[in-house]
Amino acid sequence: xxDAAAPRQALAAAHAPETSWRESATGYLFLxxxxxxxxxxxxxxxxVSLYLSFTDYDLxxxxxxxxxxxxxxxxxxxxxFSAAMHxxxxxxxxxxxxxxxxxxxxAMMLNRGLRGLPLYRAIFYLPSLxxxxxxxxxxxxxxxxxxxxxxxxxxxxxxxxxxxxxxxxTALYTLVALAVWQFGSPMIIFLAGLRQIPKxxxxxxxxxxxxxxxxxxxxxLPLLTPVLFFNLVVQTxxxxxxxxxxxxxxxxxxxxxxxxxxxxxxxxxxxxAYFRMGYASALAWVLVVIIAVFTALSFLTSRxxxxxxx
Length: 310
Known about the structure:
single chain, 310 residues, 14 helices, 1% strand
C-alpha cells in the first residue's frame, strides 16, 4: 500500500536545512551590531594592545619588538609607576568603603517610607550620572581652589582655608570627596536589596527585644551581603579606572607632587604626552591583571561573608 504522506514528508525534509539556515541568518543579522562592536571595538583593540605591549612604539614609526622589556622596566626601574600605584591604591581604599557606607546610610533612610520617594531617589541618583563629567570636575576644582566656595564659607566663621587642590596633603582627598558624592548608583541597588528583606523578620526581632543596632548587624547586614558584594566589586573596578577628575583637577599633570597621579592618568601621559605607546600598552595590561586579581580575591573570599538564601 502506498503512503500518500511520504512525498510531503520528503519535501519537508528537503526544505528543512534551508529553513534552519534562514532562521540562523536572521539571528546573526540581529546580533551583527554587537558582534561588530565586540570584535572591532573590544577584542580587536585589546589583542593589538597586547602585541604592542611587547614593542617599542611611538605612533610615528613601525613597532619594534623588544620582548618583555616594558614589563621589566615597570617592575624594576620606574618610580612613576610606584607613585601612581600608591596614589591609586590609597584612592580605592578610601573612596570605595566611604561611598558604600554613605550609600547604605541614605538607602536605609529612604527605606523608612518617606513621601515623595521617587523624587528623592532621582535627586540622589543624579550625581552618579553627571559626577564623572568634565563640567563637574571643573566645578569641583573651583569649589576647592584657594578662593573657592569652600574657603569663602570657612571665612564666614573666621577660618582661613588652604587651596585644597594645590596642597599635596589634601589634593587627593578632594577627589575622594567627589567619588563619595557619586553615591547614587550603589544607593539605588542597596535600596532595592532592602525592599527584599521581609518585614516580619524585623517584627520578630522587636518582639524578642532586639535594638535597632542589633537588628542592623544581625538581620539587615547579613541579608544584604549579596548586594554589598555586587556593589563592592563594581565600585572597586570603577575606582581603579577613575581618570577624568584627576586629569581635570590637576591639569593633566597629576600634581601637586604626583599626589593625584592616578594610574590611568600616568598611562595616559605615557601614551599621548610622551608617545610611548608600547610602554603604555604594557601599563594597561598590568592594570587589567590588577583588577582581575582584586575581583578574583573578592569572589574567593565571598564564601566566608556573603550569605545567600538557602
